[in-house]
Input
Amino acid sequence: MADYEGMRWFKCDFQVQTPEDAAHWGDPDTRLPEPRRPMVAPVPDAHGNVAPAKPDERRLQEVAQAYLRRCHEVGLELIGVTDHNFSQKTDPRDWFMTHLVEQNKSVAKELCKQPLHILPGFEIDIGYHVLCLFEPAKKASHVWRINRLLCKLGLDENERFRQGQPMPLRRNGANVSLKELIELVQEQHNGIVIAAHADQNDGLLNDPRNIEDYKNHKLQALEVTANPPVRKILDVVEGRDKAWARSDRHPAYVMSSDAKSLKRDENGEPAANSIGYRHTWLKMSRPSVEALRQAFLDPQSRIRLSGSRPSDALRHPRITSVSVKGAKFLADQELSFSESLNCVIGGRGSGKSSLLEYMRFALNQDDASSKDQDAALSRKRTQLKESLGEAAEIRIAFEAGGGVSDTLVYEPSRKVGLQRRIEGREVSDLNTVTRQLQAQFFSQGELSRMTSGAQGQAQVLALIDASSGTELIELNAKERELKGTLKALFQARRDERRLAQEISVAQQEATELTRQLEARAALQGDSKRNQSALQARRFLASLQEQFKAEVAAVEIARQSLIIQGTALPDDAGAWPNAEWFVSKIVSLEQARAMLIDGIASALAEYQLLVGELLGSDSTGPVLGAIEADQDAFRAACALKGIQEEDIARLQELEEDRQGKFKIVVDRTAALSKVKLQAAEFEPTLMALHALWRKQFDVRKQTADDIQSKVASNTVRLRTSFMNDLESFRQLWKRLAPRDGRGKLARHWEEIGDDLFGSWRTRDKEATPWETLEAGRTDNCVLPNFYGQMVDDLQPAMLKHLDSEDIQPIWEDIRLTRIGDGIDVDLLRDDQSVAGSMTGALSEGQRNTLLLNLMLARGEGPIVIDQPEDELDSSFIYKTLVTDLRSAKLKRQLIIATHNANLPVNADAELIYALEARDGQGQALAQGGLDRAHVSDAVLDIMEGSEQAFKRRSEKYHF
Output
């Protein structure tokens, strides 16, 4: 399987020192030896010859291994090795970095982990401390370039340290400038510069003399030591300190350990300034300098400070008004909506998309559109959720039907109680209330994602389901009920098979015990009479048990008749000829009562008769004869000189045999009950299949209704029952053999496609799963496979389904519905087909199809963010505007847009204009186009100003 190439969060530490930096390293037990590689003389050979002495690198390797293990222990995946001035040594074999890189793979393999991404580099002093990092080193030669670069900067190998202390980077008596350093490191050698511990005394932000360096737009990142940074630092990096303000974006800030130790504290946590003490999460595809640069350019999305892996923490019909308080991107505001078409407009950063997304969050609809959300959309939503501060509150007033009003209050930061609640009343299930609103939300770009590939069909089906109303909801509820019942009935079927097997085993064991008893030739005749006597006694007991079981079964049936009854629905009084139904129900209940009384009377007579036949007066003589034969057997044993121990053994064998017979009786009684349950499986399964067909019928009726209501008359929907091959394939994969080497596994996908085709061709079974079950009695449920029948695959497949690990999955699959097939045709003006959702349509045409369907069906609000971005421009005025004008007459539309066709030509009842002031979206104007300040806002925002609009109109030769 190919390596994962997508982005994920990496735990990073961009500033770790090593024992290389002896002046600052704090652990005596991991200090490096001097000399680094002492010479060791080899042992003389057999002839007394001694080879030349060799340098011993074992200590360097051991420390490197310990260092790497500690990095893995604290979960680091990337480290930037930034010893001061790199190294005092000149031989690459003396560099600790060389051994760190060389030992990386072996230590990772030992720990069953991926090797660390080691970014080689150094820390230097240019008046404040700076980190320089380079591409990950995978072999020792990658480290040598770092040494050469430091020489280019002016720190030759013999000038980097004085009396063990690192020297600042100076040239001609002055510090090398940050500008020169960035040019050499970032532009010439593909590295990256980070201002080290910028909030400390030796950091960039500590001295106002460094302001111009901070304003260098090529400085992309700096390091802080607190999360969050202190207020003074935050004012700088967030642009509030005007003295430090940059004309472009401010640099990203990260956290690093500045590690000088491998120690733990008394709680087992990393000690201060040791490996793992501080870290940063970066989202990257694969660590590299370019990945770091991209992350530093997009810190809100790709950088998190400390804590656990961010991906682990992510959990993420008329609206009358919405209010927003405490949001980062929107000023506190409230607006009231028209019941028809509402357009939210504004420039970039004005918050129009944020407003719609906040509404989506409040109504808990942020995950309704797709299971496979676009990564950019997910990041945007995460960022927006995080922008709702401690005092944030979203209030949505709505009418779900009948003019009854409710207000939903959403407080995302609440730790106690519900984040969402209905103001002024208690509700047991909030989703039931909000579901009545039937709101549908579609984010920017979502139409295209919804119609790409097979997603288009799935989304049209989801739209049909959402538009099918209570009938489909009730069918879905009944489906869940039937599936729950069937899961219990599967257990009953398993119990039936188990009990039958236990009965068979017990019967055979009793037979074997009988043979042992009869094997005693000396007492064979007497033994047979004794066995006959015992059989007679057992048969008499079984007659009595059978009588009891029969009486109990009849009594259960009689009680069932009493419980069942027949009652008319509450609203039956409004039926035609209601009196007829009432009289018939009364007569039926009288007949039922007569049946119940008749059963009770017959049962009493039966009990009396059996009591006479099997009572003690009748059975006494028989039991006496049985006892006489048993006494004769015991006397015969004594006469034959059978030892007391042998008699006891005979008795033990007989008791064992009787125990087996008891098991047969008990299991047979249990089996009769289980069979009653198991017998319900097939009719219940048939009921589920019939319900699936009803679901499709509702969907088809809804699809036909949607098609008839498309105002522009440009859509034709085609539906087919459970015909989504991709849906089938996803379920079929769950059943695949775990061992992919066998013939069955190798052909699994082809067998599945054949099965699906065979089901549709046979047209006998309700589902492909039942076609497969039919293979237990029909050897030809699969068509010819690759031109010839593979005779052994069908039985092998059935055996596979009955295996212990697959059987539970198979039972679940049999109760799982395959998706219905759907396609949508786009029609021309002459009603000819221009293309279909699954055929040759452009993205814009597919999106137009879906939007037409959304507008045509349903009563709840539709909230869409900038639909024009995803539609062919030729359809916007001709089709979309037409559909909007029609749809707004029967449902509420709330649309964020920057296309004037929508609010102007579709004649919006409410235009809400936003502008960005002080970093937040604030209301500029609201109302209809008949208000001057609203039309001015539309002109300025959507046309670029009145003058710009006039100049364009002149160019068009109007």
